[in-house]
Amino acid sequence: MINLNTSFKKMKESTHMIHAIVSPLASNDLANVLLSLNQAPILAEYYKEVYEVTKNSHALLINLGTLNQSKLMGIKEGLKSAKENNIPIILDPVGASATKVRLETSLYYLKNYPIKVLKGNYSEIYSIYHKKLTTSGVDAKNIAKEEIIKICQNLSTMYNTIVVASGKEDIISNGKETLLLKNGSPLLPKVTGTGCILGGIIAATYSFEENLNAIALAISILNIGAELAIKDKGMATFKISLLDEISLIDSKIIKERIVYEKLWPKPIFSYKQR
Could you give the number of structural domains in the chain? Predict the structure, then answer.
């Protein structure tokens, strides 16, 4: 069984500053989630201050959810600072499968900066690997999980990064080890910003331990929180309940509920405790 206790304990006992450049649609929820996990979010994106903010942070999350020229200038300064000051970069290439500018921007960042974690949905990861658009929207449901697993493994080796592909089952790979996480709720994709929230949690956990376990912890916090959230009173109630459950979650709950498989190069074992 993977051990998530160490990462969780470190996060709960120490506060890291997490610099997140994200969509304004998700910034408030992202900040509140990080605060509830004992972390210190800062969402600066003004290009004249971003370099300094990133330098003083423990991780940088770049999310391409809402693009404009001003934000791209801020992202450029953040990436420059992270590269020069050895700050881990988490890249969420939102919409990379939908528009040429997002795909080309994501590929440029991967080529020119030390991206530590690449986190996207199946279609975004597929598009980045094949360097072509795959959908008119943000999500795609017709890409086989087995194909995405191989793509994650190959992308990790190509760019020396940990790759996360979120979907019905979430995939994490560092090119040598691959984890398949099976918790979650079908309601998660129906709430705006949950992908951004996941990126923020990944930035937080990864800032303490730069490994697969830290990312598995982040995904489990969100997905198990979603499993525990109220689901029978509408989407607004589900969203608030999700934020509550994330703030209340502990390592014991995660250990009791986590469901995953460890793969590479073929299935090694699966684990389920309920």
Answer: 1
The whole model's pTM is what? 0.94
Is 79 part of any domain?
yes
Would residue 217 count as lying in a domain?
A: no
What are the DSSP calls for the chain, one per residue?
Answer: ----HHHHHHHHHS--EEEEE--TTTHHHHHHHHHHTT-EEE----HHHHHHHHHTSSEEEEE-SS--HHHHHHHHHHHHHHHHHT--EEEE-TTTTT-HHHHHHHHHHHHHS-EEEEEEEHHHHHHHHHTS---SSS--S-S-HHHHHHHHHHHHHHHTSEEEEESSSEEEE-SS-EEEE----TTGGGSTTHHHHHHHHHHHHHHH--SHHHHHHHHHHHHHHHHHS--SS-HHHHHHHHHHHHHH--HHHHHHH-EEEEESSSEEEEEE--
Lowest mean pLDDT among 142-156, 178-192, 195-209, 221-235: 142-156
Is residue 97, in this structure, part of any structural domain at all? yes
Question: Is 260 a member of any domain?
Answer: no
β 89-92/259-263 pair status? unpaired
Element (H, E) at 96: none
Counting residues of the chain whose pLDDT is more than 90, the rounded percentage is 86
What is the residue range of 43's domain?
Answer: 5-175+188-210
pLDDT digits (tens, 9 = 90+) for 153-173: 999 999 999 999 999 999 999
What average pLDDT is seen over the chain?
93
Q: Which CATH number covers residue 138?
A: 3.40.1190.20
- Which phi and psi (to 5°) does residue 55 adopt? -55, -35
